[in-house]
TrEMBL record:
The purine nucleoside phosphorylases catalyze the phosphorolytic breakdown of the N-glycosidic bond in the beta-(deoxy)ribonucleoside molecules, with the formation of the corresponding free purine bases and pentose-1-phosphate. This is Purine nucleoside phosphorylase. GO terms for molecular function: purine-nucleoside phosphorylase activity. The lineage of its organism: Bacteria, Pseudomonadati, Bacteroidota, Flavobacteriia, Flavobacteriales. Residues 22-266 form the Nucleoside phosphorylase domain. It comes from the Bacteria. Gene3D superfamilies: Nucleoside phosphorylase domain. Its EC number is 2.4.2.1.
Length: 270
């Protein structure tokens, strides 16, 4: 695996991906941050050696390098999911490549459903902690100790200082920013009423199908991580409506400007 990571990183370095400071993973319907980036290089995933290829229609499948608010960044425009048939090592492979390129910080966004009914669709939740319900770990493979500590401490997987800065920015910019626990499931099916009740009982405030594997690997690599969930639907088991993908994308678009503000302002303060 180390060889594959090095091959991908070397390929990108040859194409101008020169020591980025920050990695950014953009979730479903959340690609407009790229408009704020002064792009210096971009490569489709299917051109990068050993890289998975995005199969979800809402994910573009490009790695982009450039400058955002004075910082060199590498952005994933489209991410990978277990429900696409990938292993967790595939899903997290790009994080390892970005780390080898030089990133020290990782920012993650996702679209998720609100389990906490005090949270409304179109709002944003800062992830304070998570629950891994994907049934596996991206660190559960032979030789993982060659890349970092096998038994990674997860007492604070999301960087406290970065999260505090995000909350401060939200206060200054009058952005409604909740804070809570994100549960990551396999998908791709949405949850049943009973599953939403279960998620609430175990302490989840939001549920989605991504982010946690990448955050686990980021902690394994010693990266400082902050992540936000765009709440695209309300998961009330007593008043559950059939899922509407178009509405989910519309809710992501509604909240995206505030997410962009949070991320761009945070860049100035890293």
């Amino acid at each position: 695996m180390l060889k594959y990571i090095e091959e991908a990183a070397d390929f990108l370095k040859q194409r101008g991906f020169d020591t980025p400071e920050v990695g950014i993973i953009l979730g479903t319907g959340l690609g407009k941050l790229i408009e704020k980036v002064v792009i210096e290089a971009e490569v489709s995933y299917n051109h990068i050696p050993n890289f998975p290829t995005a199969t979800v229609e809402f994910h573009k499948g490009k790695l982009i390098y450039g400058t955002l608010e004075g910082k060199k960044v590498v952005l994933m425009q489209g991410r990978f999911h277990v429900y696409e048939g990938y292993s967790l090592r595939d899903v997290t492979f790009p994080v390892r490549v970005m780390h080898l390129l030089g990133i020290k910080h990782l920012l993650v966004s996702n679209a998720s459903g609100a389990i906490n009914l005090n949270f409304k669709k179109g709002e944003i939740m800062l992830i304070d902690d998570h629950i891994n319900l994907q049934g596996d770990s991206p660190l559960a493979f032979r030789g993982v100790e060659k890349m970092g500590e096998r038994f990674v401490d997860m007492s604070a997987p999301y960087n406290v200082e970065m999260n505090q800065k995000m909350e401060q920015i939200a206060s200054e910019k009058n952005i409604k920013l909740h804070k809570g626990v994100y549960a990551s499931v396999v998908g791709p099916q949405l949850e049943t009423r009973a599953e939403y009740r279960y998620l609430k009982i175990i302490g989840a405030d939001a549920v989605g199908m991504s982010t946690v594997p990448e955050v686990i690997v980021a902690n394994h690599l010693g990266l400082r991580v902050s992540a936000v969930s765009i709440l695209t639907d309300e998961c009330d088991p007593d008043n559950l409506q059939p899922v509407d993908i178009e509405e989910i994308i519309a809710m992501a678009a509604k909240a995206e400007p505030d997410m962009i503000t949070l991320f761009t302002e945070l860049m100035k303060r890293l």
